[in-house]
Write a structure and sequence with these properties.
The chain is mostly helical. It is built from four helices and two strands; from the N terminus they run H-E-E-H-H-H. The protein has helices spanning 2-17, 50-57, 64-69, 76-97, and strands spanning 37-39, 43-45. A two-stranded antiparallel ribbon has the order 1-2. Helix 1 (2-17) packs parallel to helix 4 and helix 2 (50-57) runs parallel beside helix 4 (76-97). The radius of gyration is 13 Å and the shape is globular.
Length: 98
């Protein structure tokens, strides 16, 4: 799990440092209103995974409704990972505003 967080931070550093500024994947698959995870075009899941949340956080696009529930029912390791994902999302959102 910690490897995922380190990889995410490394990835965002690389993306932020890129002069091209092109990201091949530019959409978060969570619905902004419901927090449902959308996949395979038209399929809906009530929740995504920590990996899908990390993908959105790397772009600063994790919806508030997902942030509010991320890690709520997890054990200590999942809560820790959720907190790091939330922090990353916040940092990237701030950088995107600049």
């Amino acid at each position: 799990m910690k490897t995922l967080i380190v990889a995410g931070i490394l990835s965002i550093t690389i993306i932020a440092g890129s002069t091209a500024g092109i990201v091949a994947y530019n959409a978060c698959n969570y619905d902004e209103l419901t927090g449902n995870y959308l996949y395979d075009g038209n399929k809906v899941a009530a929740h995504g995974t920590m990996d899908s949340a990390m993908e959105c956080a790397l772009m600063g696009m994790l919806p508030d409704i997902v942030i509010d529930r991320l890690g709520v029912f997890g054990a200590a390791e999942e809560v820790y990972q959720a907190d790091r994902i939330k922090e990353l999302n916040s940092e990237v959102k701030q950088k995107n505003k600049e």
